[in-house]
Specification:
about 260 residues; 10 helices; about 20% strand
């Protein structure tokens, strides 16, 4: 009996379980299109979490094509960046966007906790990824993020990943612009299989186009993508834990 109680207590404190709680908190803010108050609430939540973990915080504001503004919240440990882990904080209208992409933000925060004692770690909650909302050709938060990196910082990055839609679906996929896995994708494989993303549907695309080979970690398929049924109840702690584990192994390998 005591063993069962202890096992339950341990399970309740796993990163996946904590990440599921973060998903619920983010979803409670309501729909969060780029530039909205709800998007800002997510950014403030992430800023507080990263600051409490000891990260050096920077805020990167940028304007939106249709008016208004969004921003990125970036946390860094000491030293030049070697590992970059990103997740977009915004969603589309009409949905609480629990999987797309409260799940990615929650996993990113969990990874920030695991990697906080390593030099060269950059984590960020990005704004304005959803092009259907911004009417832009680009994922604007990651575009702004990569433009702020100086050339020597770009050259030193060994692993870069976008965490996007991790909580729902039967299969974890590593995706990239290239026909074959780039160096970031190879660090994530064979834990998840590779699927090309020729359209560049997440924030990895802007980094790759800027010369930083980046990968997108995604779980497929989600029938509630960009729909009102994208709710917290469908996101599982087990799926989040699997994504955290895969990314942590890849980041640790890159950090050496």
């Amino acid at each position: 009996m005591l063993g069962a109680v202890l096992a339950t207590a341990i399970a309740l404190t796993t990163p996946g379980t904590a990440a599921k709680q973060t998903v619920a908190q983010i979803a409670s803010f309501g729909p969060r299109p780029a530039g909205s108050r709800a998007e800002l609430q997510v950014h403030r939540l992430v800023e507080a979490r990263l600051s409490a973990l000891g990260y050096e915080i920077s805020i990167q504001p940028f304007t939106l094509p249709r008016g208004g503004a969004s921003r990125n919240v970036v946390g860094r440990t000491a030293g030049p960046p070697r590992v970059v882990i990103l997740a977009h904080a915004d969603g589309v209208r009409g949905t609480k966007a629990a999987n797309d992409n409260a799940s990615g933000v929650a996993a990113m925060v969990a990874l920030a906790a695991a990697l906080r004692d390593h030099d060269g770690v950059v984590v960020a909650a990005l704004g304005a990824e959803e092009r259907i909302e911004t009417r832009s050709r680009y994922h604007l938060g990651s575009l702004d993020f990569v433009r702020r990196l100086v050339p020597r910082e770009r050259r030193g990055i060994r692993f870069a990943a976008s965490l996007d839609m991790l909580g729902v679906g039967s299969r974890l996929r590593v995706r990239g612009l290239e026909p074959r896995p780039n160096r970031s994708a190879r660090l994530l494989i064979p834990a998840a299989s590779y699927l090309r993303d020729p359209l560049g549907q997440s924030d990895h695309a802007e980094l790759t186009r800027a010369g930083i080979p980046a990968a997108w970690l995604q779980r497929r398929e989600d029938r509630c993508w960009h729909s009102a049924c994208d709710t917290v109840a469908r996101v599982t702690a087990r799926n989040l834990q699997a994504a955290i584990d895969v990314t942590l192994r890849a980041a640790s390998a890159a950090l050496g």
